[in-house]
């Protein structure tokens, strides 16, 4: 049924659970996987303009890339163990949900499989929900792992 599954990751244990499930689902369907991680734009990481010098900016961006590579390596390893073809993408975006949806469209994915932290009440309002936004704006099927 599914031929190309997009699996976003934030490096959390819940994300790793979704990756494992996604790799098994891809294996069952004979599908391939694209993993994606979205790094926030550097300027969103600072409290106010001029808070860091250019050396600090480069260091923060490099650290974010190293973390992203580690998260995406987990997807590659999990898919390799399942015998599933996989590629990965690292995007820079102010809105992770938008990066997820755009990557799915660009790669021709027919399913987005992601996790939910399950935040409720005030926490959900204050922190927002990238999963909810993907569910709201995606034009392809979305599967949520809890």
Give short descriptive properties of this protein.
146 residues, alpha/beta, Rossmann fold, five-stranded parallel β-sheet, 5 strands, globular
Main sheet summary:
5 strands, parallel
Query: What is the number of beta strands?
Result: 5
Poorly predicted spans: none
Name of the CATH superfamily = HUPs
- Whole-number tally of structural domains: 1
Report the top-level CATH class. Alpha Beta
Strand order of the largest sheet: 3-2-1-4-5
Mean pLDDT: 88
Binned, the helix content reads 40-55%
Number of helices: 5
* End-to-end gap: 22 Å
At CATH level 3, the topology is Rossmann fold
CATH architecture grouping: 3-Layer(aba) Sandwich
Description:
The protein has 5 helices and 5 strands. With 146 residues, the chain is of the alpha/beta class. It has a single domain, classed as Rossmann fold (3-Layer(aba) Sandwich), CATH 3.40.50.
What's the quick description here?
This protein has 146 residues and is an alpha/beta fold.
What topology emerges from the helices and strands here?
Elements (H helix, E strand, L loop, with lengths): L3 E5 L4 H17 L2 E8 L14 H29 L3 E7 L3 H12 L3 E5 L5 H7 L2 H8 L4 E4 L1
Parallel strand pairs: 1-2, 1-4, 2-3, 4-5
Helix pairs in contact: 1-2, 3-5
């Amino acid at each position: 049924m599914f031929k190309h599954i997009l699996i976003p990751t934030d490096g959390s244990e819940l994300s790793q659970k979704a990756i494992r499930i996604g790799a098994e689902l891809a294996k069952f369907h004979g599908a391939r996987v694209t993993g994606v991680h979205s790094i926030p734009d550097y300027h969103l990481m600072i409290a106010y303009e001029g808070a860091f010098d250019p050396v600090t900016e480069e260091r923060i961006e490099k650290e974010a890339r190293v973390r992203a590579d580690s998260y995406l390596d987990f997807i590659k390893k999990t898919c390799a163990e399942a015998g599933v073809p996989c590629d990965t993408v690292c995007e820079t975006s102010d809105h992770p949900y938008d990066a997820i949806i755009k990557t799915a469209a660009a790669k021709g994915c027919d399913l987005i499989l992601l996790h939910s932290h399950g935040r409720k009440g005030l926490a959900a309002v204050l922190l927002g929900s990238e999963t909810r936004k993907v569910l709201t704006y995606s034009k392809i099927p979305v599967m949520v792992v809890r």
